[in-house]
Write a structure and sequence with these properties.
Elements (H helix, E strand, L loop, with lengths): L2 E3 L4 E3 L10 E3 L4 E3 L4 H7 L7 E3 L22 E3 L4 E3 L1 H4 L8 E3 H110 L3 H5 L5 H5 L12 E6 L3 E6 L2 E6 L11 E12 L8 E3 L4 E6 L1 E8 L4 E6 L9 E3 L5 E5 L4 E5 L4 E6 L5 E7 L5 E6 L6 E7 L2 E6 L17 E4 L5 E5 L4 E5 L5 E5 L12 E6 L5 E5 L4 E5 L5 E5 L7 E6 L5 E5 L4 E8 L1
Antiparallel strand pairs: 1-2, 3-4, 3-5, 6-7, 6-8, 9-10, 10-11, 12-35, 13-14, 14-15, 15-16, 17-18, 18-19, 19-20, 21-22, 22-23, 23-24, 25-26, 26-27, 27-28, 29-30, 30-31, 31-32, 33-34, 34-35
Length: 545
C-alpha cells in the first residue's frame, strides 16, 4: 500500500492516486479513495470486488486467474511443469503431478526477497560508506598534489637561484677584472702626465744652461737620463677571454681567467619505478568496425579517438561505446590525428595542405603548410608545440615542421653534412616528442626509426635488427611513455618494439594477438592502445608493472 508522511501523522493514500484512502478492496488488496472506487471496478468488470471501509479490511493473497478455466483462481503450483494451476487443472492436464500450495511458495519467495532486500540495503550502506571514503581519498590526493606542486615550484626557484648565483659570480668576476685593468691603466696615465710635466720643466732648465756662459752653471750639470729611462712608457693589462663549451641539453662550461663553472644535466625524464612486465597482457579487445583502421590517439584513462575507412573520427571508450563522432573535411580519412593540451582534436587534411582543429561547434584551420607541401604525421608536444611531418606531392621529399600556434619555429630536413635525414617514398612519417625533448620519427620508407635531439641533430637510428624478427622491419606508428621509452608498431612482424630513450632495444611485445598493428597511443594509465589495420580491432595492452 502506498503511504506518504505529513508533519503531524502518517497518512495512508490511495493506490490509484495521492488522495487519502477511505475504502479497501479485499478481492484485489488495494487501498481506494472515494473518487477511485468506480474507476477500479470499471477497470476490472470481470472480477468480483469486495469493497469495505479501510478499517474493516482483510489482508490475504490475491491469486491470478487461470488462463484455461474461467472464474478459477490458481491457488496451486505444478512442480513438474513449473506453472500456476487451479483446482480444475488438477483433474485435467496436470492430473497426477506434484502440486504445491501457492501460499507456501509465496511465503518462501517473500523470505528470499526479504533476505535479498536486506543484502541490497547492506550494499547500499557499504556503497555510501565507500563513497565517503573515496571523497576523502580525492581530497587527500588533491591536497597531496598541491603540496607536491608547491615543492616543485620551490625547487624550480632554488634551481634558478643556483644558476643565477653562478652567473652573478661570473658577472662580478668580469666587473672586478675590468676594474683592476682600468685602475692600472688610469694610474699609469696619471704617472705619465705627472712625469711629463716634470720633464718639461727640467728640459726648460737644460735649455737655459745651454744658453748660459757661466762656467758654474755648466760644470754643475748632472745627467738625469738614467732616471728618465727607468720610467715605464707602457703598461700591459691582460684582458681574459670568456671561454665556454656547450653540448646542447647535456653540459655548459664557462671559464674567465681563474674563474670556472660547469653546469651539467643528466637526461631529463619523468622518473618512475614502473618496469616492463615479463609478459604483456590484453585487458580489452574492442571491435571498432572500421576497415582499414588508421591512427589512434588516447584522451584520458579510458577513451581514444580513432579513424580510418571514412571521413569520420570517432571517440570510443574501453568498452567499445561510441562517445563522439566528428565529420572531417578530408576526401578519405585523416593521415594522422592528435590531441592538444586543452583536449581538442587536430587532424591532417592532406588534400588541402592544412592541419585542422575541431572546436566545440566548428572545424577550423590551425596550420597552413608552405605551398607544395602536404601534412602527414602529427604530434602535440607537452610544451604546446605541434610537430607536423610533411611531404611533396610526388613523395620524393619528407621533412618535419615545428609550430608554435600558427607560426613555424623550426624545420628538420638535413643532417650536419647536408644530406636528407628522411628517405623519399610513398609512406608518410609518424612523429612523437619524448619527455627528454628528443624528436622520434618512424620512417617506413627507410625501414628505420630516427631519433633527433631538439635541435634536429640525429642521435641514433634503429633498424629493428636487435629484435631478431623473421620479416623485414616495417615501423608504422610510434609512441613514448612515462619512462621515456619508445614503442613502435611493426606492421609486418605483428609485434611492438620497445626501446629505451637512448635506442637500446629492451623487448618485443608479440604475445597479444596483434595482426598488422599500425595505430598506437599510450593512455594516462600507461596502457598501450594498438589498432590492427586490417581487422579494425583495438587492443588495450598492459605492458608495465
Amino acid at each position: 500500500m502506498a503511504t506518504s508522511s505529513t508533519w503531524a501523522q502518517e497518512v495512508i493514500t490511495c493506490d490509484l492516486c495521492d488522495n487519502p484512502t477511505q475504502q479497501f478492496c479485499n478481492s484485489c488488496q488495494i487501498s481506494l479513495c472515494g473518487d477511485c472506487i468506480n474507476k477500479h471496478v470499471e477497470s476490472l468488470k470481470s472480477e468480483t470486488h469486495d469493497i469495505v471501509p479501510f478499517k474493516d479490511r482483510r489482508e490475504r493473497l490475491v491469486f491470478s486467474s487461470c488462463a484455461f478455466h474461467p472464474n478459477q483462481k490458481c491457488e496451486g503450483h505444478c512442480q513438474q511443469c513449473n506453472v500456476p494451476v487451479c483446482f480444475k487443472c488438477l483433474t485435467g492436464p496436470h492430473s497426477g503431478h506434484s502440486v504445491k500450495d501457492m501460499s507456501e511458495i509465496v511465503q518462501q519467495m517473500k523470505e528470499e526477497i526479504k533476505k535479498e532486500t536486506g543484502e541490497i540495503e547492506s550494499l547500499i550502506s557499504k556503497f555510501a560508506l565507500s563513497g565517503t571514503k573515496t571523497d576523502q581519498k580525492i581530497y587527500n590526493l588533491t591536497e597531496k598534489f598541491k603540496t607536491i606542486e608547491r615543492e616543485g615550484e620551490n625547487l624550480r626557484k632554488t634551481w634558478h637561484e643556483e644558476v643565477d648565483s653562478i652567473f652573478d659570480a661570473l658577472q662580478s668576476n668580469i666587473r672586478a677584472t675590468k676594474d683592476r685593468g682600468l685602475t692600472t691603466l688610469s694610474s699609469h696615465k696619471s704617472m705619465l702626465q705627472n712625469s711629463g710635466a716634470k720633464l718639461a720643466l727640467i728640459a726648460k732648465e737644460k735649455k737655459k744652461i745651454l744658453k748660459s756662459n757661466k762656467v758654474s752653471d755648466v760644470i754643475s750639470y748632472e745627467s738625469i737620463l738614467k732616471t728618465i729611462r727607468d720610467i715605464p712608457t707602457d703598461v700591459h693589462v691582460t684582458i681574459p677571454s670568456l671561454k665556454f663549451n656547450k653540448i646542447p641539453g647535456r653540459e655548459l662550461s664557462i671559464e674567465l681567467g681563474e674563474y670556472k663553472a660547469i653546469l651539467t644535466q643528466t637526461s631529463l625524464s619523468i622518473l618512475s619505478v614502473r618496469k616492463l612486465l615479463e609478459k604483456a597482457k590484453v585487458i580489452a579487445s574492442i571491435p571498432s568496425g572500421i576497415n582499414p583502421l588508421g591512427p589512434i590517439i588516447c584522451t584520458g584513462a579510458s577513451e581514444a579517438w580513432i579513424c580510418g575507412g571514412d571521413k569520420f573520427v570517432r571517440r570510443i571508450d574501453i568498452h567499445g561505446s561510441l562517445k563522439n563522432k566528428i565529420t572531417t573535411e578530408c576526401d578519405s580519412y585523416p593521415a594522422d590525428i592528435s590531441v592538444t593540451r586543452q583536449g581538442e582534436l587536430i587532424y591532417s587534411d592532406t588534400n588541402n595542405g592544412t592541419v585542422k582543429i575541431a572546436r566545440q561547434w566548428s572545424i577550423e584551420t590551425l596550420i597552413t603548410l608552405p605551398q607544395g607541401w602536404y601534412p602527414e604525421g602529427l604530434c602535440c608536444a607537452r610544451t604546446g608545440d605541434v610537430l607536423v611531418s610533411m611531404c611533396t606531392p610526388d613523395k620524393t621529399r619528407h621533412k618535419l615542421l615545428c609550430c608554435q600556434g600558427q607560426r613555424a619555429t623550426q624545420e628538420i630536413d638535413k643532417d650536419n653534412y647536408g644530406q636528407s635525414i628522411f628517405k623519399g617514398g610513398q609512406y608518410g612519417l609518424y612523429v612523437e616528442k619524448n619527455n627528454n625533448g628528443d624528436i622520434c620519427a618512424s620512417d617506413m620508407n627507410a625501414k628505420t626509426v630516427i631519433v633527433m635531439d631538439k635541435t634536429g641533430r640525429v642521435r641514433f637510428c634503429y633498424d629493428g635488427t636487435p629484435a631478431r624478427r623473421n620479416g623485414p622491419f616495417q615501423p608504422a606508428h610510434i609512441a613514448t611513455d612515462s619512462l621515456s621509452q619508445i614503442i613502435i608498431t611493426d606492421y609486418i612482424n605483428d609485434c611492438l618494439h620497445v626501446l629505451d630513450q637512448n635506442g637500446q632495444f629492451l623487448k618485443c611485445v608479440d604475445n597479444c594477438g596483434l595482426r598488422s598493428p599500425a595505430g598506437l597511443s599510450v593512455d594516462s594509465e600507461g596502457r598501450l592502445w594498438v589498432g590492427c589495420y586490417n581487422s579494425g580491432d583495438v587492443k588495450v595492452i598492459q605492458y608495465l608493472e
